């Protein structure tokens, strides 16, 4: 299937590694020109270099998406380098898991700042471009955790917030040819997850609760994002695509 995103320009936040890096690669393989952006400078540069080594178009911009000025610089540099912006994937995020009674204010604020404020600032920065050209795609990377997980009050709240934001913006921006959707991953085998001391236990429990008896791969998420970013998904907006192996609760 031709996704018809050849030549489009995509920013993928938090794309130095993991789901973000896989998503950037998938979009680039479809012909998009991608911007790798993260605060992990060495890893982000290496990810962009690996794409270019494979003949794909990629540019790296180091930016902290919790700061408005840096987000605006990210967008301005993207437009200067590639000539436009058409797709935004709000992927940046991380957990700070603790039971609520042990969760600090910093644990709460850091998760909210990166996932919710970062997505707000990035989306706000690209939206004038999308409106002006009458075409745009925003894909928020939520999580199955939006249903709720113990020790993840902050993470679950942020991921649910991304869904609420997407649904509101889908209504607000649809008249301009802009779609806003979410992808909600289930248990994914990423570097961050594999580094957890409890990885094997979490993996066993997750697979036992899924109809599809394997762990998710970053490419599973990348394929879903690529579809929602495409011309083929132009009549889909305000939706949440769960990529969870069939697990919801």
From TrEMBL:
Domain Ketoreductase stretches: 8-186
Give the InterPro entries listed for this entry.
KR_dom, NAD(P)-bd_dom_sf, Sc_DH/Rdtase_CS, SDR, SDR_fam
For this protein, what is the EC number? 1.1.1.100
UniProt keywords (A-Z) are: Oxidoreductase
NCBIfam families linked to this entry: PRK07231.1 (NF005559), PRK12826.1-2 (NF009466)
Q: Which PANTHER family match?
A: 3-OXOACYL-(ACYL-CARRIER-PROTEIN) REDUCTASE, 3-OXOACYL-[ACYL-CARRIER-PROTEIN] REDUCTASE FABG
Q: Which family does it belong to?
A: Belongs to the short-chain dehydrogenases/reductases (SDR) family.
Q: What is this protein called?
A: 3-oxoacyl-ACP reductase FabG
GN (gene name)? fabG
């Amino acid at each position: 299937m031709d996704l018809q995103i050849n030549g489009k320009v995509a920013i993928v936040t938090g794309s130095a590694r993991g789901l973000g890096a896989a998503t950037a690669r998938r979009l680039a393989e479809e012909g998009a020109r991608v911007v790798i952006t993260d605060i992990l400078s060495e890893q982000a540069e290496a990810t962009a270099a690996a794409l270019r080594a494979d003949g794909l178009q990629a540019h790296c911009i180091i930016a902290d998406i919790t700061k408005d000025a840096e987000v605006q610089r990210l967008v301005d540099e993207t437009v200067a380098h590639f000539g436009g912006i058409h797709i935004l994937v709000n992927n940046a995020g991380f957990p700070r898991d603790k039971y609520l009674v042990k969760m600090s204010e910093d644990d709460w604020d850091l998760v909210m700042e990166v996932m919710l404020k970062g997505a707000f600032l990035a989306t706000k920065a690209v939206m004038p471009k999308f409106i002006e050209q009458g075409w745009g795609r925003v894909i928020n990377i939520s999580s199955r955790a939006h249903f709720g997980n113990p020790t993840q009050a902050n993470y679950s709240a942020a991921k649910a917030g991304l869904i609420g934001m997407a649904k509101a913006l889908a209504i607000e921006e649809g008249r301009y040819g802009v779609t806003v959707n979410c992808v909600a991953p289930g248990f994914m085998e990423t570097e961050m997850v594999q580094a957890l001391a409890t990885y094997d236990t979490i993996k066993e429990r997750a697979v036992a609760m899924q109809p599809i008896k394997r762990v998710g791969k970053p490419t599973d998420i990348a394929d879903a994002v690529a579809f929602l970013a495409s011309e083929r998904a132009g009549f889909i907006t305000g939706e949440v695509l769960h990529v969870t192996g069939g697990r919801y609760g």
